Please model this.
Amino acid sequence: MRPITNITGLAAGLAVLAAVDVALAGSMDPALERFVVNSECQQGPEGYGSYNEDFLDASGRPRCTTNDRLFKRFVNQLGFAFAPTAMHPARTTGYGGFHFSFEASYTDINERAKYWRLGTRGNDDPDAVIASEQNDDPASFLQLYSLKARKGLGFGLEVGASVGMMPQTTLMSAGGDVRLAVLEGFREGIPGYVPDIAVGGAVRTIAGTSQLQLTISSLDVQISKPIPVASSVVLSPWVGFQYLWIFGDSGTIDLTPKTDATELCNYQGDNVPGSPSAPDQVDENGEPVYDGQAICEGGVHADMNNNVVFDKARFVRQRAIIGASARYEMLQFGAQAMFDLVAPEDAQTSQSAKDELKGTPRQWTAVLEFGVVL
Model:
């Protein structure tokens, strides 16, 4: 039971570190309020984020229009970093077997792109609502550190679970895996020379930000073959293919987060029964009119509901898997590379998705794992 206790302790420590990170925020945390078509709607006479009366629509609200294209490109690359890694050979741990591991993955991103500069917080002022107009120095790759557990159930079936955290952000991930090794169990005769083949599925979702809901599901196929070395080490190389589905939805985003809506309005209360500031308005029948709206004295309602939700991001990716693990008694170490087989735009099934990702570069993920097999 000692390995399980150690894993539990490490998980608790990971949760504490994540809680501290939430309080401090991170330079690569999402800042989706910057994804607007015309940033001047946020650039008023008092500086960035203040109200500008030159950008009002007919209802008196700022004409801040969401830039959904930047949002979707941001989600597409972030989803690649959080996607399930399928870091294992095709052969399972076997009936009654357990595998506990620590995994580190590193994903390349297009850090000079506008969607990473505008879409991440930056380092200028960690206590500010938004740190600056953009992040001038985004990270060149995203790191994800995870604790993983796999359990064999017999008949070639295996289930797994994962929890992870991403440095430089408040983001955490969690999810589960299931796979079936269709040829597992053959050890002798001609079938013993046939490579192991497994099919699996997994899902990951993130937490740690109210700005974004992100879920990634996957389907993968892997082929591997264990190779005994010097009677004490088993080397297992593998290759595979993975198909990803990325689902990204924004939370409710305030496009002018530094504007104090109540101060701009000179807020006096709400137009509800019993409010001393409610105006003496009556309808044609002489009944009081209460619309529940904020009461402004000498100000405007313009920023009271200047909140938006971006268009949904729905993308697919296709990536190749090449990896290997080495096991010595209970200890196991592995390394893996994952990369786009086709350009992101070519992987899409709809023309609109192809257009949204046109010109975005391919990505790669490098994965390292250290674990114990019980």
